[in-house]
Design goal:
With 286 residues, the chain is of the alpha+beta class. Helices cover 22% and strands 26% of the residues. The longest helix is centred in the middle third of the chain and has 30 residues, at 154-183. It is elongated.
Length: 286
């Protein structure tokens, strides 16, 4: 009798273990979880949806809209540095070469083998491909290594240059605004500098008195006569549904990373420059 009891005990224990740990949920006999029963006056809390509408927050470094300073001057809208560099993946050629400090070691490859520049050392960034810099221990060295932009102090250097450039752009625009107020006009007019059709007349050196007068009047401040590299030729067109002329020129400007070649377009009607724009984007030239 005792042996039978022990046998039954072993069988029941094995069954309970199998029911608890082996049998899938929903098919258990003893250990199935009981259904949740709520009191009559309570209802389940509404689950939080992962697709709920996002909370609206301002984007970092989003370009602020120009504000009137109170004097009537509206500062130009300047793109954030992250937008200009496309999140640190695009740099103008004038950004290189430059000396940078490394925050991580860089392995250098050369014909004779490899070596390593330690963190804290300086190197010369020769170019960039995306967010990766090609570096060398000196400007003339044949050794080459690669490192992420943010593993150097290049972002700090570029940001400092950008802040100086942005401040200069605003000061330049404000000076031009004051000059326009003093002259009492936003457009440079020089009727004798165009022919009977309103086409600007070229000088012997290829320049145009009408456009030079526009620059001297402060209508545009980013373009300096001494920095103009090439003058285009007038093209007949229609602007604002009226006959007009456009004239492109190429000049050197100062960008956030140094000198940069740029193209600008003067739009001309009735013997005066009505506006200056960048032909690629249509944005006004400061």
């Amino acid at each position: 009798m005792k042996a039978l009891f022990i046998t039954l005990l072993i069988f029941v224990s094995a069954f309970l273990i199998y029911d608890r740990f082996v049998t899938p949920a929903g098919r258990r006999i003893v250990f199935e979880n009981p259904p949740l029963i709520l009191p009559p006056d309570e209802t389940p809390a509404r689950p939080i949806s992962i697709h709920a509408a996002p909370i609206s927050r301002p984007l970092p470094d989003s370009p602020a809209q120009p504000r009137n300073t109170g004097s009537g001057f509206i500062p130009p809208q300047i793109e954030p540095l992250e937008q200009l560099t496309k999140n640190w993946t695009v740099f103008p050629p004038t950004a290189f070469p430059r000396q940078v400090r490394l925050s991580k070691p860089v392995q250098l490859r050369m014909a004779a083998g490899t070596s390593t520049l330690p963190a804290g050392a300086t190197a010369f960034a020769l170019s960039a491909q995306g967010n990766v810099l090609l570096v060398a221990p000196t400007e003339t060295s044949q050794a080459r290594g690669q490192i992420f932009v943010h593993d150097t102090d290049m972002p700090t250097q570029v940001r400092a240059s950008y802040e100086r450039w942005k401040k200069g752009r605003i000061e330049q625009a404000q000076a031009a605004w004051k000059q326009r107020l003093a002259s009492g006009s936003n457009a440079a007019s020089l009727p004798h500098a165009v022919d009977a059709l309103g086409k600007p007349k070229a000088n012997a050196d290829g320049s145009y008195d009408l456009l030079l007068a526009s620059m001297r009047s402060g209508q545009v401040t980013d373009i300096k006569p001494a920095k103009i590299k090439r003058w285009g030729t007038p093209q007949a067109t229609t602007i604002d549904n009226k006959p007009a002329w456009t004239l492109n020129l190429w000049y050197e400007t100062i960008a956030f990373c140094g000198p940069l070649d740029a193209e600008a377009q003067a739009q001309i009607r009735d013997g005066q420059v009505i506006r200056w724009i960048y032909p690629g984007s249509g944005e006004p030239v400061p």
